[in-house]
Amino acid sequence: MKKLAVIGCGGIGGYHLGHFLQFTDIVELAGFCDLIPERADSFCKQAESGKAYTDYRVMLDEVEPDMVFVCIPPYCHGEIEFALIERGIPFFVEKPLALELDLARKIRDAAAKKGLITASGFQCRYSNLVEPNRAFVENNRIVFVEASRMGSIPGVDWWRRKDLSGGQIVEQTIHQFDIIRYMIGEPTEVFTYGARGYVADEECPGYDTDDVSTTAVKFKSGAIGVISTGCYAKSGNCLDSKVTFSARDKRAELKILGTLKVYGEQPAETKDAGGFVVKGDGAVAAAGDAVVYRQEGDAGILCDRTFIEAVISGDGSKIRSPYADAFKSVSFTLACNQSMKTGLPVKVELE
Ligand SMILES: NC(=O)c1ccc[n+]([C@@H]2O[C@H](COP(=O)([O-])OP(=O)(O)OC[C@H]3O[C@@H](n4cnc5c(N)ncnc54)[C@H](O)[C@@H]3O)[C@@H](O)[C@H]2O)c1
């Protein structure tokens, strides 16, 4: 049986471990590494197998894993991936791949040169909502995309420092940026405004990132979009987070890993508040007019299993987010940071 190892036994590592425990028919959970020994020990206990390590090099040399899940914070990437590439070990790496595009590019190129199977943690691409959403955007010319995600600050200490996490766009809302790319193709240029001063220092000591941002995007397809993201929220009541793909007479509203509502596929009677039939601006489609798709199952299980099966079979074609593709989502989000910093529009580097 192929051997799987994990580097980084924190929050997301635990999420993956929950999946691996369901895959013991196809993989041996052979090694767990974390700088904090108790974390690696705890993973061994939960897996009831494998050995705990604090030095990933020692683990790689002793365990000789066939695949590795890299679940470390954004600022820790580099050496680990190059050690895996040097040893010819396929790897799954959590998003965001790195905080510098040059580093991600070097890793991408070195992994490709070695012909390694790679994957990244964009599990939303494996949702059952993706197929109907893609069918919608293929059958309808998308003019405008609007995305929003307003949430709060995650509990891990490194998150609140922009130099360690990359800030909210890069670390968190990258899922929205990635799913938009997966649906309508590549962005070409972004312009981003950020604002600070809503999250108080006493609420979150050491916090130095943007509370909210809005990005205007141009896409290769000709569509334009607006992506707004914030971590200032004290409650979900502050905004309805979703991604809307708007065609001239229809729209699809995606709540990632939640629901997909397609408006306009069925004949809809549109009425204004007074009950008169209106067209264009001000028309309101009744809720019953939407075709609704609901999330089923755990997309993360499919994401992990797809990578593991790819390594076992040697066929990476079913992986929806290989490293080289995830690189472009990282580039998209880093371009937003660059625009916020310079106050200028920034071209998205796709190569
Ligand atoms: N795909 C998703 O939806 C999703 C969700 C949450 C987090 N993440 C991503 O996962 C990554 C980790 O986030 P987290 O919340 O698990 O962080 P975390 O701080 O809870 O865990 C990271 C762990 O990595 C360990 N680590 C760091 N450097 C190491 C090294 N050189 N060797 C061994 N262990 C090392 C740390 O000690 C820590 O235990 C982040 O990039 C985050 O964006 C992805």
- How many β-strand runs? 17
Number of domains: 2
**Whole-number radius of gyration?**
21 Å
Second CATH tier, the architecture of the largest domain: 2-Layer Sandwich
What would the principal axes of the Cα set say about the shape? globular
Identify the strand order in the major beta sheet. Answer: 16-13-12-11-7-10-9-8-17
Specify the CATH class of the largest domain. Answer: Alpha Beta
Task: Note the total helix count.
Answer: 11
Q: Separation of termini?
A: 37 Å
Ligand catalogue: nicotinamide-adenine-dinucleotide
- Arithmetic mean of pLDDT: 93
Question: How would you name the CATH homologous superfamily of the largest domain?
Answer: Dihydrodipicolinate Reductase, domain 2
CATH topology of the largest domain: Dihydrodipicolinate Reductase, domain 2
Polypeptide structure, described:
The chain is α/β, with parallel strands linked by helices and 351 residues long. The chain folds into two domains: 146 residues, 3-Layer(aba) Sandwich (Rossmann fold), CATH 3.40.50.720; 187 residues, Dihydrodipicolinate Reductase, domain 2. It is 33% helix and 23% strand. It is built from eleven helices and 17 strands. The strands form three sheets. It has a nine-stranded mixed sheet with strand order 16-13-12-11-7-10-9-8-17. Strands 3-2-1-4-5-6 form a six-stranded parallel sheet, sandwiched between helices. Strand 9 and strand 10 form a beta hairpin. Helix 9 crosses helix 11. The protein is globular. About 5% of the residues have low confidence. Bound molecules: nicotinamide-adenine-dinucleotide. Nicotinamide-adenine-dinucleotide (NAD) binds next to helix 1.
